[in-house]
Write a structure and sequence with these properties.
about 230 residues, mainly alpha, Arp2/3 complex 21 kDa subunit ARPC3, two-stranded antiparallel sheet, 12 helices, 2 strands
Length: about 230
């Protein structure tokens, strides 16, 4: 992408929407939901309930940029240490955002497959190989068009894509026992179902609110800049 193309892509309206999402996401990251087992002072936050929807409205590239901006802003302002755990936690939501934004199979299938391979390459991971079966969910969803095009399918696939990336990196960086990994299975199922529900509901609500706001304010926005799904409008 050349300089002119870069300027054209990140035009004023797109930058404004990216900034607004990043601000809202930054606030959400200050609200903890549950702690991460195996590491102190690491939490899932409200951000997990809507983060991936950025790509649906802004497109995969701008959506990932918005999420990365929100995460790095939180990293810097919160004064987090540049530890390996803190750094790897920046990546899962980026892949989840891409998954939710597009139904392209290649990368969306490759990411959980690579995650499974990395997990099974770990000695502890090999003993709890069945834990990685969670990450077949985004693969299966992408292979079934009806699920891949639906909001519940995209939401479930996105949150488990994030989990696959995080899980594959976590097993290599945070000391975990086999018993801890097994104990996590019902917790993962519960949390990811909640996250998926939050992502789906957030998408529908934000879609309707944005459409109503743009209509009432008579603001014209190109669909390439802000994608509104007319199936979910008031």
């Amino acid at each position: 992408m050349g300089l002119n193309q870069f300027k054209e892509f990140f035009n004023k309206k797109r930058v404004i929407f990216i900034a607004l999402f990043a601000i809202f996401a930054f606030i959400a990251q200050r609200i903890n939901f549950s702690g991460l087992i195996g590491a102190e002072n690491q939490f899932f936050t409200l951000f997990q309930f809507f983060g991936p929807i950025a790509g649906a409205f802004l497109g995969p590239i701008a959506g990932v940029a918005a999420v990365l901006l929100a995460e790095t802003t939180d990293f810097l302002i919160a004064g987090k240490e540049a530890t390996l755990v803190n750094i790897i936690r920046l990546f899962p939501m980026l892949f989840a955002t891409y998954y939710f934004a597009t139904n392209k199979r290649a990368l969306n299938i490759a990411i959980p497959v690579i995650s499974i391979m990395l997990f099974l390459a770990n000695p502890i991971g090999r003993q709890v190989w069945f834990f990685a079966l969670f990450w077949t969910i985004p693969i299966i969803i992408r292979l079934i068009p009806r699920l891949s095009d639906s909001v519940p399918g995209r939401s479930l696939g996105a949150t488990f894509t994030a989990h696959s990336v995080g899980g594959a990196l976590w097993i290599w960086t945070v000391p975990m026992t086999v018993s801890q990994m097994i104990a996590l299975i019902p917790i993962v199922a519960y949390e990811r179902l909640l996250f998926a529900a939050g992502i789906g509901i957030s998408f529908i609500l934000v879609n309707a609110i944005l459409d109503l706001a743009l209509t009432r304010l008579n603001i014209k926005v190109n669909q390439e800049v802000l994608r509104i799904d007319k199936k979910f409008t008031i």
